[in-house]
Design goal:
The protein has 196 residues and is an alpha/beta fold. It is built from three helices and nine strands, in the order αβαββαββββββ. A hairpin with a 2-residue loop joins strand 8 and strand 9. The longest helix is centred in the middle third of the chain and has 14 residues. 27% of the residues are buried.
Length: 196
């Protein structure tokens, strides 16, 4: 089955619970954020994951319980440093959400990473400051398969106009001695002569 095959039925309202593994790449980039709003909260999984890291959710809403993120003025109900949301990936919903949310507060949104490489992204990318790679996500707990698309966290803000900085997946550093012609030589800092 190809990446774009229609061999599966999408969930109503694009409801896919945010797994903890998809949140971890975002955490190091939430400098100065202590409070947040989640206007597409679903069952609150993303809110719970962020609260584990000390963030406080001051607004949690979802269309399933009567709060449409595109029409309900949630910014009038709460004060927050950022909007952090696992939004619907349907472009007819995603694009208006980007436009609206970035005017309210700095906004982190989780959606497919391929979007950044499409023509439809062009009007929105100047206001995107960061793209943090997540990779393939296992959206359905208890299954052995991940989703077909790579995901990323995108940060948008109306005041940002220089386009995005891409932050790739975390890579474990391996600290091993360098081998030359079968012998081991320790690396030294060229300026200080200190062995590394």
């Amino acid at each position: 089955m190809g990446k774009r095959s229609t061999g599966f039925v999408r969930r109503e309202r694009d409801f896919y619970e945010t797994p903890y593994s998809a949140v971890l790449p975002l955490i190091p980039h939430l400098h100065g954020v202590s409070t947040f709003a989640e206007p597409c909260a679903g069952n609150g999984a993303l809110v719970g994951h962020l609260q584990k890291h000390g963030l406080v959710c001051t607004y949690e809403g979802d269309i399933s319980y009567g709060y449409d993120a595109l029409s309900y003025r949630f910014e009038a109900d709460a004060v927050f440093d950022a909007i952090i949301s696992n939004v619907p990936w349907r472009r007819d919903l995603l694009h208006p959400m980007i436009t609206l949310f970035q005017r309210i507060a700095p906004t982190w949104m989780l959606f497919d990473s391929d979007w950044a490489y499409t023509k439809q992204a062009a009007p929105y990318l100047p206001h995107c400051s960061h793209i943090v790679a997540v990779g393939r996500v296992k959206w359905i707990e208890g299954t052995k398969h991940t989703g077909k698309d790579n995901a990323a966290w995108y940060r948008f803000h109306n005041q940002h106009v220089d386009g995005p900085r891409f932050i790739g997946p975390a890579v474990k550093e391996v600290h091993e001695p360098v081998r030359f012609r079968g012998t081991i030589r320790r690396r030294c800092d060229a300026h200080s002569g200190v062995r590394l």
